[in-house]
Amino acid sequence: MNHHSELAAQRLQELTFTAIDVETANEQRNSLCAIAVVQVQAGVVTRCWQTLVRPPELRVEAINQSIHRIGEDELRDAPSLAEVWEQIAPLMEGNIVAAHNAEFDLNVLQQTLAYHTLRAPSFRSLCTLKLAHVAFPALDDYRLPDVASYLGLHFRHHACDEDARVCAQIAIQ
User: Fold this and answer.
1) Distance CA 36, CA 3 (A)
2) What is the Cα 170 distance to its own chain's centre?
């Protein structure tokens, strides 16, 4: 193994982070209605976890539902973020948390946590949208489906578990 291969293997061993994706029910930033978390350890996806979340106000806008295909009926009996937060927080605490357009996903999470007066975890964030701009400068567009297509990744866009998994793969590649 040459020096570059050894260095690449070492960096892959160190590549440990959590990728997330969220969906919102309406125009309110605290209307988180689905969240997926994908853990990557040593460059390998080791855990995928997702749940629907009942937003503070059970109101799904038609535009949002047309995007993520989640309606009020599915959310009526879903747990609130407060009810599932103890399962999610440890997956983020002290880690690097990646999201495609991280500013949106992390803001939605932060505002929903604030609504429930839950403590936000401490983590460093990584935006795979910004990362893709640097890593793949020849692309015409950097939306998640465009970057995924460029990398040969197939998925169902706006299914939050698949979006989080693709986000993780973008960060790995």
Assistant:
1) 37
2) 12
- Residues 104-114 have pLDDT tens digits of 999 999 999 99
In total, the chain counts a number of residues equal to 173
CA–CA separation, 100 vs 136, rounded Å? 14
* Residue 97: closest CA among 12, 13, 11, 20: 20
Residue 13 pLDDT > 70, yes or no? no
For the cut 90, the answer to whether the pLDDT of residue 2 exceeds it is no
Phi, psi at 162, each rounded to 5°:
-75, -40
Q: What pTM was computed for the model?
A: 0.89
By the 8 A CB rule, do 53 and 81 touch?
A: yes
End-to-end CA distance of the chain: 21
